[in-house]
Amino acid sequence: MPTSAIDGNFDDKSAAAIQAAREGVAVCDRSHWGRIQVSEGDRIRFLHNQSTNDFQRLKPGQGCDTVFVTSTARTIDLATAYVMEDAVLLLVSPNRREKLMKWLDQYIFFADKVQLTDVTDNTASFSLIGPGSDALLEQLGAGAMIGQPDGSHQQLTVGDIEVRVAVGSGLATPGYTLILSAADKETLWNTLAQAGAVPMSDRVWEHLRIEQGRPAPDLELTEDYNPLEAGLWQTISFEKGCYIGQETIARLNTYKGVKQHLWGVRLNTPAQPGSVISVGEEKVGKLTSYTETDQGSFGLGYVRTKAGGEGLKVQVGESEGELVAVPFVTHDYV
Description:
The longest helix has 12 residues. 20% of the residues lie in helices and 34% in strands. Strands 13-16-15-14-17-18 form a six-stranded antiparallel β-barrel. A six-stranded mixed β-sheet has the order 9-10-11-8-2-12. Strands 4-5-6-3-7 form a five-stranded antiparallel β-sheet, covered by helices on one side.
């Protein structure tokens, strides 16, 4: 099973990007993430029936995070959807692009008016991350999205480039997602850097992802876990009708049956992903991701609900740890 472990030996550029994401504005190239366009007349109904969020309430210019799950509610991917006038654009994890194309295609039946198009290679995507993102967009004449709800998006002009600017960085930190033609990628990147955005590597993104608790496929999002255990309550509509995996998710919520939760784990020494999390002699969970922060060793892990929650003292391999809340996930029943 893949593991995510990030050591703390960041060079000056990486350290500057982390600081910018916290205090200013950083820019991360997410062009290797998948972008799937869903078009034709039944697209909204189709996505409504295939994932956890309520697409039928969305209007063009709005968007949401949603989770694609199996029939038994095991997670396939956490995606962001942007509803446009004539299509829906899905931003999906890099290692789920092909799988989701095949998985969605099998649910398109003869009479369905749905077209799936992988537009990843023809497009690019950046994330602006940090409290300085508003000022940077304003500076570039693209401030129309400032103050709009998460997922809101609009086609704007940055310099001479047409860019879809969406509210939300992909992390718990405020920011924006920019989607544009691949032909304009280098020009826009240079424009953003010249305007003061500090370039961020994939390694730093992964560090922030772990620190903030965004679950990732093959690590926190696998067929071992459902989206309620992963803390993705904000991606789930409990009012909408039937969808794949809905029965299991509704039952877990109604009967408060979530058996384990994803937590941050603050550690006193480094630990390896895959390590057993225990309380005394009892195994209560597993570490799924690990990074080193300026406050010490830190990981993400699933812990059995009955063992306890925030503040619980645990053993992780040879390390001692404590469960802490992370901003990307929640543990509340609806």
